[in-house]
Write a structure and sequence with these properties.
Chain A is α/β, with parallel strands linked by helices and about 250 residues long. Chain A is about 25% helix and about 25% strand. The chains are: A alpha/beta (about 250), B mainly alpha (about 240). The structure holds adenosine-5'-triphosphate and magnesium ion.
Chain lengths: ~250, ~240
């Protein structure tokens, strides 16, 4: 089942930069997809379009077949974005309060807000941090909180932008395990990263972008030879099943 | 860098749990009481405030260290009153003025330290109920956010300052150049962060009409309100 579909999506910034140039991408329910590509290839801009944070210069984005610009309210939370910089995503003074932000925006009743906050805390193992101030958390915990804040909206698809950047081995494992758990729970995952060797073994699909276009889109095993041509580091003689930071 | 003054200090004390709709006006009334003349009143209000701090289990030692940053301000106030009053023994009124001001700062600080922003903005929304829902909602969120942006700003400030230091530019040696070099990137970064924050909020379905934290006033809240009123009455009677 198609959840997201972009049709000829183009984006030109006011300064003339053509960030997206006719992107056609379909995200199916339950997929675990990795979106990779060089710096400046348009990954983050594409992600913002999937939630309607930017307006296409050409083409369109469909969510469950409905144009994002006239989205029925029930699809408002279909896509959840986790941005790269966790620090500027926190709006609450404590972890708990931050998690309430999304559900409060949806005007959910108090019991439902509580239920979702508790669920998000559990899935991201942040329960014992509920009363901490977000800015005092470790890097890995901040990432998990950013994910939890979006989880509280109960999105079908989670799009994560560079969730491993700046994390050490433990932090990376921590976040990766969280993402895999979410996938097991039935969330569709679109993960933006150029450190593919950390996760590729878990993905069912690899999409590569270059100059605002999708230049490759296939099962990871089919792209091991091509990927390096687009600036993606694939360790030499590595087996696909080795490309994970979790044993 | 991790100051405690004027920053929410999560907790579960009675003071934390008081209904903010009573705590907010209660704090204002307390300030009014603290401003009444006379050393006796100052002593009573200071005692009440100290008790409240103890109840809230705020680490007093850290608070005291943070409070030192207000000492120059209080000294200035002391000196201003000292040199402007011409009645006998100007030392006492000057000390009282400084003491009262210190109390005001601490009372405001206690409110912030023990009340989550979401509760303050829920109370503000409640007080603004006569206004249209959207407007009240927006004001409530604005108050919450502007305070939320402060730590972000300080973090950026710190980083910009360190970056300058690393490049050998120090405030003491070239203050003007330092200020310009500090402010330009700082503003740019703060704007960038604000934009990122706005995007993240929009990504989390931000709307002006949000469900608000449910507030519930219980017997204990009314008792607290009554205690503050009694305190004010007792002080104003004398
Ligand atoms: N606000 C903006 N104004 C002008 N150009 C922009 C803006 N944001 C992004 N761009 C440009 O759009 C292009 C795509 O940027 P994008 O951020 O999507 O890249 P990316 O693939 O996410 O790169 P990275 O791996 O570095 O995060 C880049 O050329 C970038 O310079
Ligand atoms: Mg990017």
């Amino acid at each position: 089942m198609k959840i997201i579909e972009t049709q000829g999506l183009g984006h030109r910034f006011p300064d003339g930069t053509l960030a997206l140039n006719g992107v056609n991408l379909v995200v199916e329910k339950g997929e675990f997809t990795i979106l990779a590509g060089r710096n400046g290839s348009g990954k983050t801009v594409l992600m913002k379009h999937l939630k309607g944070l930017l307006t296409p210069s050409s083409g369109r984005v469909l969510i469950h077949g409905a144009d994002l610009r006239h989205l029925p309210p029930e699809y408002r939370t279909t896509v959840g974005l986790v941005f790269q910089n966790p620090d500027s995503q926190f709006v609450g003074q404590t972890v708990m309060e931050d998690l309430r932000f999304g559900p409060e925006n949806l005007r959910l009743p108090e019991e439902e807000i509580q239920r979702r906050v508790q669920r998000a805390l559990d899935i991201t193992s942040l329960r014992d941090k509920a009363d901490r101030r977000p800015h005092t958390l470790s890097g890995g915990e901040k990432r998990r909180l950013a994910v939890a804040g979006v989880l509280a909206l109960d999105p079908e698809v989670l799009v994560l932008d560079e969730p491993f950047s700046g994390l050490d081995l433990e932090g990376t494992k921590d976040v990766l395990r969280g993402i895999l758990a979410l996938h097991d729970l039935g969330h569709t995952i679109l993960l933006i990263t150029h450190e593919v060797e950390k996760v590729l073994a878990h993905a069912g699909r690899l999409v590569i972008m270059e100059h605002g276009r999708v230049v490759a889109d296939d099962h990871p095993s089919a792209l091991l030879q091509t990927a390096p041509r687009f600036g993606i580091h694939i360790p030499k003689k590595a087996d696909l099943s080795d490309m994970t930071w979790i044993e | 860098m991790d100051r405690v003054i004027f920053r929410y200090f999560p907790g579960d004390s009675l003071i934390h749990r008081f209904d903010p709709r009573i705590k907010l006006p209660g704090c204002a009334l307390f300030c009014y009481a603290a401003l009444q003349p006379g050393p006796r009143n100052l002593a009573i209000t200071a005692g009440a405030l100290l008790a409240a701090f103890l109840f809230a289990r705020i680490p007093l030692k850290t608070l005291l260290i943070d409070f030192l940053r207000f000492v120059p301000l209080l000294t200035a106030l002391f000196l201003a009153v000292f040199f402007s009053s011409d009645d006998g023994g100007p030392l006492v009124p000057a000390a009282l003025a400084a003491g009262r001001f210190a109390l005001l700062i601490l009372a405001g600080n206690l409110l912030i330290q023990t009340t989550a922003l979401s509760r303050i903005s829920a109370a503000v929304r409640w007080f603004l109920t006569p206004l249209p829902r959207r407007l009240a909602g927006r004001l409530g969120t604005m108050i919450g956010l502007s305070v939320g942006l402060i730590p972000l700003f300080f973090q950026e400030l710190e980083e910009s300052r360190d970056a300058l230091k690393a490049r050998g530019l120090r405030a003491r040696k070239q203050p003007l150049r330092w200020a310009v070099k500090l402010l330009t990137p700082l503003l740019a970064r703060v704007f960038l962060r604000t934009e990122e924050m706005a995007e993240a909020m929009e990504g989390r379905c931000y709307s002006d009409e949000r469900s608000s934290l449910p507030l519930k006033a219980q017997g204990i809240d009314w008792l607290f309100g009554l205690a503050v009123i009694l305190l004010v009455l007792a002080i104003c009677q004398t």
